[in-house]
Each structure stands twice: as C-alpha cells, then as structure tokens.
Design goal:
Number of helices: 8
Shape: globular
Radius of gyration: 19 Å
Structural class: alpha/beta
C-alpha cells in the first residue's frame, strides 16, 4: 500500500505571480532608458515574453503581475501586444521598496482567489518553457515548494571583502536556482507575513521566495532547470536574448 503522505495531490487552482516592479540599475542605457522588463525583444518586451510563456501552460488559470507605480502605461502596452491571451492577466498590483515587499503585495492581492499553488516568476527571465512549469508543479504536489535549478559547473570559492580566497567550496551539492518557483499558496503567504516582521538585516538574507520558505521550516525540492531561463540583468544579457530571438526566428523560417 502506498504511503498517503507521499501521494500526489494535483493542484486544482494554479495562479502565476510575475514580479516586474524593479528598476534594473545594472542595465544602464541598453534598455532605452526604461526598466529592463520593458526592453524590446523582437516585437514584444521582455515582460510580455515572460507573461506569454506562462499563459501557454494549460495548468495556469491566470497571471498576476506586480509593477512599479510609474509603469502603468508600459504595462498596458505589454498586454495589448499579447492580444487575446492578455484577458487571463489580472489587474496589476503595485510593488514595494524591495522584491520581497513586491511579492508580498502580489500574494495578498490573490487572497480572494485563494489558489492552491502559486508560481513566482522573475519578469527578467523571458524564455521559460511549459516543460519547466510542469516539472515544478508536479514536484510541488509532494512538497511545500519546488525550484528549477542547474548544477554549479565552475569551481566555487569563498572570498573575504578584500578579494582574498578563504576556502574552496565543494560544488557537488550546489545548484543555481531559477524561476518560476512553485509553492503552496497558503504556506508562502504565511512565510511572507512572518518575513515582513523580521529585522532589515534578516530580510536582506532572503534572496528568493524559496529562502523565505526555508526559514519557516518548509520542505522545498529542486527540479531540473533550463539554460534558456537566463535572467536579463546586464547589457550583455540583453544582447544574448536578442540573438536568441533572432536564431529562433531564423530556425522557424528555415523549417517552413
């Protein structure tokens, strides 16, 4: 007989939350003087690509986006570029002073919908696949959360503030976390409520939503990530993303 505690319970209501309130200071002028999530990638913005990819998953009922208060017009432009699929995007929520605060605002906005599971995704990762979404959702059936990740392939060093090497870290158990990250909604909201009451120093240690859940003793598992889930942070990243789009367009054209 199977262990009831290990039986999968598929989520009946899955919503996605896209965090898109940042300013992207490391991008400089490469994004045309606007936040990186609104930089153009072919005929869509980085954010529109991310939303569109999420909407390709039949498991996701709707998408909630957290935006900067100054970006209302830009966001509406993103939705119009998506056409009819944009109907599954909820009215945007304004972000806070930090990514953690922005995510918390988004989670609270979903309290009426009360999803079983919520996917948290960085707006600056435009090339997510349905396969990754499926993997994190399936893994979340047996845990409080699931994170896509890739192995750490380089030798890892710990250094001091002066750049001196302190130690070499064994990379066997290290991975590079990505998004979308899937979590049981109620557990994540509770974890964010607790984190919001922490000291600023404590909050600074939370670099993603998985770390907030880990601090609350929740079980988070890792699934296979995707090299295409590269985060667009610097001008070099944006140039890579544009080449990726051009290559995909060329391959599609040659297959016709």
């Amino acid at each position: 007989m199977s262990d009831p505690a290990k039986q999968r319970t598929p989520a009946s209501n899955v919503l996605a939350l896209v965090v898109a309130a940042g300013r992207g200071s490391r991008m400089g002028t490469a994004a045309g003087g606007q936040a990186k999530q609104y930089a153009a990638l072919d005929d869509l913005t980085v954010l529109a690509h991310a939303i569109g990819r999420l909407l390709k998953s039949p498991q996701i009922s709707a998408v909630q986006v957290v935006i900067h208060p100054d970006d209302g017009a830009r966001f509406r432009g993103c939705l119009s570029s998506l056409g009819k699929p944009g109907e599954r995007v909820l009215a945007p929520v304004h972000g806070g002073a930090t990514r953690q605060a922005s995510t918390h605002n988004g989670l609270r906005a979903l309290q009426t919908a009360r999803p079983d599971v919520v996917l948290i995704h960085d707006a600056a990762r435009p090339f997510l696949s349905v396969a990754v979404i499926d993997r994190v959702l399936e893994a979340c059936e047996l845990a409080d959360g699931a994170v896509p990740a890739l192995p750490a392939i380089d030798t890892m060093k710990r250094v001091d503030q002066d750049g001196g090497i302190v130690e070499t870290i064994q990379r066997d158990t290290l991975v590079r976390a990505q998004t979308p990250q899937a979590f049981k909604y109620e557990a994540l909201l509770q974890a964010h409520d607790t984190a919001a009451m922490s000291t600023p120093e404590r909050q600074a240690a939370f670099t993603d939503d998985a770390s907030i859940m880990e601090a609350n003793g929740r079980r988070i598992v890792v699934v296979e990530g995707d090299e295409q889930l590269r985060k667009i942070t610097t001008p070099e990243d944006l140039a890579w993303a544009r080449r990726h789009i051009q290559l995909a367009d060329a391959q599609q054209e040659s297959s016709r």
